Fold Rhodanese-like domain-containing protein.
Amino acid sequence: MRRLILASLLAVSALARAEVIDIDNAQLEKLAQSGVPVIDIRLQSEWEETGIVAGSKLLTFFDEKGRSDAAAWLEKVKPIAKPNEPVIVICRSGNRTKPVSQFLSQQAGYTTVYNVKSGIKGWIAAGGPVSPAASSIASCKAAKTC
């Protein structure tokens, strides 16, 4: 009986565990077109330098010195995607999004987090379209969300 209860608890905890899924450019395009929000965690200077994936929500996670305020950042994510909704996270090359994706899935309770493994650099190199960031930056600054 104890083994059955233990096995049941392990099965339930495995199902409740969040998932981080590394995605490529084709998957990014398909998911974004289906309405899954894309959160770009880079710095403003990076958005201005390369542009952004159209429709991305601009929400810097790490500052210029690599510091972050995860709790404050998470409060800005919640209006974009609830923990039971999928979300895509993108940065320059996919390195910063790894810990951010893990934070969302393991600590913030997000059930499906997509990590763009090659970042915006990979997206651009593959010919993915980008939009100028200026109007998105102005919008998120006015709303105090970026």
Observations:
- The radius of gyration is 17 Å.
- The longest strand covers residues 19-23.
- Helices lie at 2-16, 25-33, 44-50, 70-77, 97-107, 119-125, 134-143.
